Amino acid sequence: MNRRVELAPYRPCLWRMVCLMASILMMGCGSGDAGDPPELFAKMAPEEIPADFPERAASKQHRFTQLNAPGVQHIANQGGLLRLTLFEGLEVTARLDKIDDGILPTKSYRGQIVDDPGSTVSMSFQDGVLKASVVTGNGRQFQISHVRNGTYVVFEIQPLVSPLKGN
Q1: Would you call 100 helix, strand, or coil by DSSP?
Q2: Chain centroid to CA 143: how far?
Q3: Which range marks the domain in which residue 80 is found?
Q4: Distances, alpha carbon 4 to alpha carbons 1, 7, in Å
C-alpha cells in the first residue's frame, strides 16, 4: 500500500514556485510600504513664493511648497505610507487609509503618524486641490492649504493663550 511519488518531474516547477514566493516576500507582499515612502511635498522656486496667505494670523510658523506628483499618485492609488516634511527638521511618516468617496467628487484619507499614538492625519482632494491637517500626539497642530496655482502653505497653528483661571 505504500505508494512512492517520484518528484523528479516536478522539480523545475517546484523551484519556480520557491523563487516566486521568495521574490514576493522580498517585495513586502505587495503592500506598497516597502522601501522609503514617497514625499508629499516638492521644493519650490523662490520666485514662486507668494507674499501672504489667508491663515497667516493663526500661524505660528509657515512655509510654502508644491505637491510632489509621485506622492500624490501613491496615496490616490492605494493609501499607505507617506512622508510629510512639515518643516526643516520636522519630518513625519503618516499611514493613511482611504475613506469611501462622499457625494462630491472628493477623495478623503485618514490615519496617523507612525509611532506617534494619539496623532491624527486627515487629507482630502477635491477637484485636484488638497486640504489636510496633522495633529501630533503631543497636541501640535498643522494645516496644509492651497494658496493659488498649485502653491500650498504648510503652517503650524498658533496655540491658544493659556486657559483662564477660575476662582
Answers
A1: coil
A2: 14
A3: 41-157
A4: 10, 9
Beta-sheet strands, E only, within 36-140: 41-42, 59-67, 80-87, 90-99, 106-113, 120-126, 129-135
pLDDT tens, position by position, 75-107: 877 778 999 999 999 999 999 987 766 666 788
- pTM recorded for the entire structure: 0.70
Q: How far apart are CA 49 and CA 150, in angstroms?
A: 11
d(CA 72, CA 38): 9
Domain count, the chain: 1
Within a domain: residue 7? no
Tell me the sheet residues that pair with 112: 95
The answer as to whether 76 is a domain residue is: yes
Q: Which long-range contacts (CB under 8 A, 24 or more apart) does 45-48 make?
A: 48/151
- pLDDT of 66 strictly over 90: yes
Domain membership of residue 45 (yes or no) is yes
Distance CA 124, CA 146 (A): 12
Question: Cell digits for 87?
Answer: 518643516
Q: How far is residue 77's CA from residue 70's CA, in Å, rounded to a whole number?
A: 10
Which secondary-structure segment (H or E) carries 73? helix 69-78
